[in-house]
TrEMBL record:
Enzyme class: transferase
Name used for this protein in its record: histidine kinase
Keyword Mitochondrion found: no
Positions of TPR repeats: 158-191
Keywords: ATP-binding, Coiled coil, Membrane, Nucleotide-binding, Phosphoprotein, Signal, TPR repeat, Transmembrane, Transmembrane helix
Molecular-function annotations in GO: ATP binding
Biological source species: Pontibacter silvestris
Transmembrane parts of this sequence: 355-377
Cell membrane listed as a keyword: no
EC number in record: 2.7.13.3
Ranges in a coiled coil: 317-344
PROSITE patterns per record: HIS_KIN, TPR
Catalytic activity: ATP + protein L-histidine = ADP + protein N-phospho-L-histidine
Length: 674
């Protein structure tokens, strides 16, 4: 009992110490004498919070970066970018973290700051290791160690040794890995950095999983756990608990493995890191499968699929390759441009020298000739003068030719720039398509794989199989809806240049789409009504407007309670036409409203547990903007939502003329047939 009280007192003391440190940094921030000091304090707060709250660490790093850019403080901006990359890595956003470290690296090269270069190269090396790009990981971590050693930057050198040890462990070269881990431990003891010491001990403990006696690694892991509990480093606690669980599982102690595996998953939930949750859920799936508890194994397999899907590793690998190629291409292009400029300058100077030399020689001979001619006759003097004029004409002709060549080079440069911009647009369109497909279509198929794996065990009851296939059916419905939206959007992207706006009367369009949504409304006993002013005409495309209206109606039905009401309103004003879809359902919280209509693709369950894809509102916004309109939302949680679409106004006479034209055309066609 006394020992337990002592541990609680130590944890309480360390937590109070951390809170005091963050409070003192916040106080110092409020009293900072200048903006440069504020940038440094923002960076220190980000570094402090990365132990417990990666999102908050990212917020402080973003504040530091914005302020540093504003006051033209490049070193502070680069430091903030590296801290942003560290936070994004912890949260599993590898592609965004990669961009942050590359941006920091560019600034470090511009200002020739060795510590910035060491931190940037190390961040890139760690990400490339996570992305399984071993060659680049070794190269960048080696660069980081070289720069840190050059200026005796012990903190950076210790981190680099740790990362290189991890890379050698991944290559199964365990002796080399142990050598680098021991070097990192020595440096960390000199620095007195408990956080990095805890990481090194964790690495040594994990290494024993691949040695002859895995149990020998447990003392290192428990020592690392005590250090990380003392400094409240939740992220490393998750990994340490997972390592202890793996060693117990390797030694056949399944219950002990389950105990520490659960602690790891619980701690991962507190961090909110999709990467940590994915790894812990996968471990629990393996433990429960070994215990033949297939219901729990399926539960954590589903959790693994969900959080692993959020990481979107394949898409991030593709983006990582594109980002790396872009950086390396830009660097080579700058070198080539510099070399070409030097060659062009040298060639131009040589041409000028040759022209000057030739002109000088000619003038010299002419002057000698003129002197001689003066002695002999005036006629020869005139002939020499004519020759001089011919030479001048040749020089002018060459200058004109050079000018034309210069204009031609400028014209070709403009054409090349336009082609590059067009290629970039096509590349962005392709990336957007593959991002959506790889993110959403993979999940249901991974679920099918997990279910089939469990069914093959032949230990599931018929009730379990029925329940699981029911869940799978809902997932496939959501995927089909997402695929339909994606096909409509892709068609619109390919036909963007052929979009034709025309006067469109809203009442028939609203009635048509309400009939489409009627079946879904009847299933929940929801009443569909409309208040539409007569002869309200908008300038729009019928197919795209129907898509937007249909999605808004389906959303309203999805989030309305059984027996509720969904109303469509439309009216015209002097500035335009307003179309609103109102419901009185569950509403949207104020904190989630900014996530709508963005690439975050926010989605939540409906009142009857209906799933969504997160694509509908994003596509609605894109379609409305293609019609030169806008879309907005007003919502209050528990009271309902109002989605408002504003479109350009058109005259009702335009619709009547269009109908008369169609009628006349039909009449002429009938007469021709008769």
């Amino acid at each position: 009992m006394k020992r337990l009280l002592l541990v609680l007192m130590l944890l309480s003391g360390s937590l109070q110490a951390q809170n005091k440190l963050t409070d003192s940094l916040d106080f110092a921030l409020s009293k900072a004498a200048n903006d440069t000091s504020k940038v440094e304090l923002y960076c220190k707060l980000s570094k402090q919070y990365v132990l417990t709250d990666a999102k908050k660490a990212d917020e402080y790093a973003s504040s530091a970066r914005a302020l540093a850019a504003k006051i033209n403080f490049p070193k502070g901006e680069a430091k903030a970018l590296n801290l942003t990359g560290n936070s994004l890595l912890i949260m599993g956003n590898y592609d965004m973290a990669l961009n942050s470290h590359f941006d920091a690296l560019k600034i470090g090269e511009q200002i020739a700051d060795t510590t910035i270069l060491a931190d940037s190269y190390l961040g890139l090396g760690i990400i490339y290791h996570k992305m399984n790009d071993v060659e680049r990981a070794f190269r960048y971590c080696g660069n980081a160690a070289a720069y840190a050693k050059k200026v005796n930057y012990k903190y950076g050198l210790a981190r680099a040794c740790n990362s290189i040890g991890v890379l050698y462990q991944a290559k199964k070269e365990y002796k080399l890995a142990l050598r680098y881990f021991q070097k990192a431990v020595k440096l960390q003891e000199e620095l007195g950095d408990k956080r990095l010491l805890g990481v090194a001990l964790l690495n040594v403990g994990d290494l024993h999983l691949y040695l002859d006696n895995p149990a020998n690694g447990l003392p290192y892991l428990f020592q690392a756990l005590r250090i990380n509990e003392e400094i409240q480093n939740k992220m490393i606690q998750v990994t340490t608990l997972k390592g202890i669980s793996k060693l117990y599982l390797a030694t056949g102690k399944q219950q002990e493995a389950l105990k520490y595996g659960k602690r790891s998953y619980k701690m991962a939930l507190e961090t909110g890191s999709s990467k940590k949750l994915s790894e812990s859920a996968q471990l629990l799936h393996q433990i429960y499968a070994s215990l033949q508890d297939y219901k729990q194994a399926y539960k954590y397999s589903t959790a693994y699929i969900e959080h692993n899907g959020m990481l979107d590793l394949e898409n991030q690998k593709r983006i990582e390759a594109e980002t790396t190629a872009k950086y390396e291409t830009e660097k080579k292009e700058l070198e080539n441009q510099k070399l070409k400029a030097e060659k062009v300058g040298h060639a131009t100077a040589m041409r000028h020298q040759r022209v000057i030399l030739a002109a000088s020689i000619i003038i010299l001979f002419l002057m000698v000739g003129l002197v001689l001619v003066l002695f002999f006759s005036r006629k020869r003097l005139k002939e020499a003068h004519l020759k001089l004029k011919e030479v001048n004409s040749d020089v002018q002709a060459k200058n004109v030719k050079i000018g034309r060549q210069k204009d031609e080079i400028v014209s070709q440069s403009r054409i090349l720039k336009m082609q590059n911009e067009q290629l970039e647009k096509h590349s962005l369109f392709k990336n957007k398509i593959f991002t959506i497909i790889s993110h959403d279509l993979r999940g249901p198929f991974l679920s099918v794989k997990a279910i089939l794996s469990l069914v093959q065990q032949k230990n599931l009851s018929e009730r379990d199989v029925t329940h699981i296939f029911g869940l799978l059916s809902k997932d496939m419905d959501v995927s089909l809806n997402m695929l339909n939206n994606l096909l409509v959007w892709s068609k619109a992207q390919m036909e963007a240049n052929t979009l034709q706006l025309q006067p469109l009367e809203l009442l028939p369009v609203i009635d048509e789409n309400m009939q489409v949504a009627a079946a879904h409304a009847e299933a929940k006993s929801i009443k569909l009504t409309q208040e539409v002013e007569p002869h309200v005409v908008a300038l729009a495309d019928k197919e795209r407007l129907s898509f937007v209206l249909r999605n808004l109606l389906m959303n309203a039905i999805k989030f309305s309670y059984e027996g509720g009401e969904v109303m469509v309103k439309a009216r015209a004003s002097e500035t335009g036409v307003t179309l609103a879809v109102c419901d009185y359902g569950k509403g949207i919280s104020e904190i989630n409203i900014p996530k709508l209509f963005t690439d975050q693709r926010y989605t939540t369950l409906g009142t009857a547990k209906e799933k969504g894809t997160g694509l509908g509102l994003m596509l609605c916004k894109e379609f409305v903007e293609s019609l030169h309109g806008s879309i907005a939302i007003e919502s209050e949680e528990g009271k309902g939502s109002v989605f408002t679409v504003t479109l350009p106004k058109a005259d009702f006479e335009g619709v009547q003329e269009q109908k008369q034209t169609l009628t006349a055309t039909a009449s002429c066609t009938l007469q021709a047939v008769s």
